[in-house]
Structure formats: C-alpha cells, structure tokens
C-alpha cells in the first residue's frame, strides 16, 4: 500500500536588529502547530543546533544550514518569518535545493508607532520573495494568518500534499498515449534499409502499394494521403486523428520546484 512520507526542513528567520525574544515566541507558536499536522508522515528537520534559538539571522549560517538540509535529504523547505527576517540568508539556502518552498509569517498584532516598532513580518516577506524571484526560486505562500488558525492549518496541509506528489514523481517515467506520429520514428541508416526492404516485400493491408520501389517513409506518406482523403483519419486542428485505436510512445518527466506564486 502506498504510504506518503516526507522530510521537511524548517528554517525560521528573523532580523538581527529586532527583539530576539519576540521572534522566539513566534517561532514556538508555529512549531507547536506544525508538529501536530501529520506527525506520522512528516519528519521535521530544524536548525536549533546551528542558529541561536533555532532562527537564522545571518548569512554566516547559510553553509551549515544548507549542509544539514542536504545531509537530511529534505523533500521541501518551510520558512516561517518570525519578524522582518533575513532575506539574503533565506534566498541563499533555498536556492541550493530544487524542492518545494513555503513562505509564511503571522500578521503583526499592531502597526509601528513612535513608541514601539512591530515585527514588520509582511514587509519582510515581500522583500524575501522578491529576492527569491531574482534567484529563480519558485515558492508557495500562506497569507499572514495566525499559526493557530484554520487557514494556516489548511494551507500547510495542502503544501505537504503537494510536496509528497513532487517527491514521488521526480524522475518518474510516464507512458504517453496519444495520436500516431506523422512519420515513423527516426532510424539509423542500417535500420532504415531493413525497414524499406520489409515494406517492399510485404503487403501493408491498404491495397496496392504505390511506393513499391521507394522507401518506407514514401509508403507511409502515400498511405497517409489516402487515409486522409477517404475519411478514415479525419483532420482536426491540423492533425490526423484515427477513429478507433491509437499507438503510444514512451517519454520521461522530472519536476523540480513544485510550488507556485500563491496558494
């Protein structure tokens, strides 16, 4: 039976000039919630052993955080903003991985005032996501809702589901079933000569062959023209579409960033 499991790198961020205790309190609110969401399917990898209070605030921590995430083979990265955050450090870390990225920060309780400066969380998220776009990083985000809100839980759950899909389809080979190609698949010269001989020495089932002295490609072109005019392969949108029956080709697909510029 299929069992989805992912490893999630959690990298809280803060601005060094702002209050550490306030940022740490915001981090703990968030961690308390995400630990309860699919705990049997999600393994959290934090940075408590690298940064003060487990919150990245300087680009000097980037190599250690990136090495830990790489060693743990994280399948996705979650970046909660505890205040304005450090956009340079965030971009430097996540740009080293081709995994889904989730951005979120709780809305400030009150706007800035002459007496007290708030956390400026939303402004910091704007700055960080602008840098991420310059780095070519695709990301998802959750609106500035409280960590203990239903909106946050739904958004986080949706991100985890997407991350599971991205993990499972990475490197997956997919059989494509569709219309018959307009010409036979490309062949080497030795293969082409063998195919031409087979066409000249066999009855293809479509009546007398008008290209008995030609190549397999000539015969195929002749059959295509006949089938198009007699209605067996009606033309639609510039393509021939057989009525009943189709052949398939095999290709491969790999995905990288699975996020989007919004939920």
Describe the structure in your own words.
This protein folds into 2 domains: 6-169, Rossmann fold (3-Layer(aba) Sandwich); 179-246, no CATH class. The protein contains 7 helices and 9 strands; from the N terminus they run βαβαβαβαβαβααβββ. It has helices spanning 20-34, 62-72, 87-94, 121-134, 150-169, 189-200, 216-229, and strands at 6-10, 42-45, 76-81, 101-105, 140-141, 173-177, 235-236, 239-240, 248-252. The strands form 3 sheets. The protein has a 5-stranded parallel sheet. Strands 6-9 form a two-stranded antiparallel ribbon. It has a two-stranded antiparallel sheet with strand order 7-8. α2 packs parallel to α3 (87-94) and α3 packs across α4. The radius of gyration is 28 Å and the shape is elongated. 29% of the residues are buried. Mean pLDDT is 78; it is low at 224-230 and 232-263.
Number of separate domains = 2
Q: What proportion strand?
A: 5-15%
Sequence of strands across the biggest β-sheet: 2-1-3-4-5
CATH architecture of the largest domain: 3-Layer(aba) Sandwich
Order of helices and strands: EHEHEHEHEHEHHEEE
- Point out poorly predicted stretches: 224-230, 232-263
What would CATH call the class of the largest domain? Answer: Alpha Beta
Radius of gyration over alpha carbons? 28 Å
Topology, number of strands: 9
CATH topology of the largest domain: Rossmann fold
Instruction: Report the average pLDDT across residues.
Output: 78
Largest sheet: 5 strands, parallel
Distance between the termini: 29 Å
Helix share, percent: 25-40%
